[in-house]
Amino acid sequence: MAPRVRFAPSPTGYLHVGGARTALFNWLYARRHGGTFVLRIEDTDVQRSSADMVTGILDGLRWLGLDWDEGPEAGGPHGPYFQSERLDRYRAAAARLVAEGHAYFCYCSPERLRDEREKAEARGEAWRYDRACLALAPERVAELEAVAAPRAVRFKVPATHTAFDDVVHGPIAFDPRSIEDFVVLRSDDHPTYHLSVVVDDVEMGITHVIRGDDHISNTPKHLLLFEALGAAPPTFAHVPLILGADKKRLSKRHGATSVTEYRRQGYLPAAMVNFLALLGWSPGDDCELMSMAELVGSFSLEGISGSSAVFNVEKLDWMNGQYLARLPAGELAAAVAPLLVAAGLSAPGDPAWFHRLLDLLRPRAKRLTDVADLARPFLVETVEYDPQAMEKHLEGSDVPGHVAALAAALGTTDPFDEPHVEATVRATAADRGVKAGVLIHAARVAVTGRTTSPGLFEVLVLLGRDRSVARLERLVDFLATPRAGTIP
Ligand code: GLU
After folding, report:
1. What's the pTM?
2. For a FRET experiment, which of 12, 147, 418, 436 has its CA 20 to 30 Å from that of 238?
3. Three-state SS for 381?
4. How far is the CA of 10 from the centre of ligand 1 (A)?
5. Nearest Cα to Cα of residue 275 among 322, 307, 238
6. DSSP 3-state of 237
7. Neighbours of 255 (CB within 10 A)
8. How many CB atoms lie within 10 A of CB 6?
9. Would you state the pLDDT for residue 147?
């Protein structure tokens, strides 16, 4: 049977890297086995859920390339895929559980429950619901019903099950006596997470639940509900947490945790997917750079590690650099263009020249944002001189004279290609009695304004003779102009 898996985010926050990895594992499993990937929005907490968060989550998944077969916008035979539109189903399931003796009405007030809990805590004990309402006499129930007393529905936890098999962690034992009769439907007629998730997993035919470790403690309750609802439970695979470099649970303290933020910072989706896939999963060899197709081809739940994964930003940066280096020029140009616009620049009109520029810059970049930054001097009319670069490279003796001589020599360099440009620079330095480095550093400040750039000869060739000469001459003029104090 082809598997049906789901990613079930609660839209109470953005799509964080942990959620994205859970979605990815589900997606990979579905694609590997020709199954169905369902996206279900768990928005029963109306107060904390928002439409903006839903949009953000969908955008994040799309950016990563995780398309869903059923869910919001895609539709499907098991809709609606928003839990807030399925409340009648949860109410019907709760009524059925009561009718079949698996659950009962509880009229206890929140005050009573709180008092009992506090009293138990004062005695140093954990309190579990005492089944007071299970023991109510029929007359008392009739009285309460006559005044329409608020009532919740509690699941009657049977003392059966003691363990389940988790694909990642193996057998996980639990003591049913430690589980209280938990609420499945609140007195406001809203389901708790346990009820809605199980009802939906049953109705949507979910065969494998792949989700975060933080849900392990909920699974015994879910198993009891599957049984009470007469449904075979799915296979469970609980994926270990993602930790920061300090081995604490990954949080904002460690830097960006939202997928959108990584997108904004200039990471490529293919690199992000590759990186997330290897957080807690391994193909069983040392293979690190894997395309989406390769991931699909080798993904297995058995390859998920039982111990926590550490989110290593340096590795992500390295991986992103690898993907940047390999991206076809047209795709890189399309990815960088919006960042250039955001930086007040525009992509050059000549695509071939733009591609040459990108090829020159990409070995020095880890992120798209680095490419956009490195591209600035090539795309502005007038470069800005970095004060530090000026201080470092322009204060030697007669730098203006050297630069002027280079401008003149380059003006007649023909052809204006790398070997000839390099020969001109070296010959001019020799003529002027200085090391080539002096001229190279000064010329770099002239044409890029910076201390670092790709190789100077390549930069000059890419800019072309006219622009290179004009920039060198402008620096000479600039240095000849008396300046008040520091650099304007
Ligand atoms: N909505 C739950 C969450 O965001 C996921 C529930 C599940 O996967 O069972 O944590």
Report:
1. 0.91
2. 12
3. coil
4. 7
5. 322
6. strand
7. 14
8. 30
9. 97
Separation between Cα atoms, residue 393 and residue 437, nearest integer Å: 10
Atom of ligand 1 nearest to the CA of 7: 8
HSE, CB side, 13 Å, CA atoms: give it for residue 285.
6
Closest C-alpha to 211, from 241, 182, 179: 241
Q: How many CB atoms lie within 10 A of CB 80?
A: 15
Predicted confidence at residue 256, as pLDDT, reads 82
Q: What would the pLDDT profile of 122-181 be if each residue is shown by its tens digit? A: 999 989 999 999 999 999 999 999 999 999 999 999 988 778 999 999 999 988 888 999
Domains in the chain with CATH codes = 4-71+242-310 (3.40.50.620), 86-239 (3.40.50.620), 327-379 (1.10.8.70), 383-487 (1.10.10.350)
46 and 79 in contact (C-beta within 8 Å)?
no
132 phi, psi to nearest 5 deg: -55, -45
What is the token pair recorded at 178?
């430690």
Q: Report whether 178 contacts 169 (CB < 8 A).
A: no
Contact 239, 210 (CB under 8 A): yes
Q: CA 196, CA 6: separation in Å to the nearest integer?
A: 14
Tokens of 151: 């009532």
- Which residues share a beta bridge with 164? 172
Task: Please state, in angstroms and as integers, the Cα–Cα distance from residue 430 to each residue in 184, 437, 460, 468, following that order.
Answer: 86, 11, 19, 20
Rg over alpha carbons for the chain, rounded to the nearest Å, is: 32
User: Ligand 1: which of 200, 213, 215, 235 to mutate, judged by most atoms within 8 Å of the beta carbon?
Assistant: 215
**Which residues make Cβ contacts (< 8 Å) with residue 452, sequence separation at least 6?**
444
Contact 79, 73 (CB under 8 A): no
Buried b (16+ CB within 10 A) or exposed e, 422-441: bebbeebbeebebeeebbbb
pLDDT band (50, 70, 90) for residue 484: low
Measured from the Cα of 212, ligand 1's closest atom is: 8
The SS3 of residue 86 is coil
What does the pLDDT read at residue 165?
A: 96
Count of positions (residues) in the chain:
488
Ligand 1 is surrounded, with C-beta below 6 A, by: 8-10, 42, 197, 211, 215
Amino acid at 304: I
Ligand 1, atom 6, lies closest to the CA of 8
CA dist 346 → 324, 325, 361, 381, 390 (Å): 20, 22, 16, 12, 27
Task: Name which of 359, 368, 267, 246 is nearest 316 in CA terms.
Answer: 267
Q: Which residues are catalytic?
A: 252
Query: pLDDT higher for 249 or 156?
Result: 156
Nearest-angstrom CA–CA distance, 302 and 414: 63
**Closest-lying ligand 1 atom to the alpha carbon of residue 12:** 4
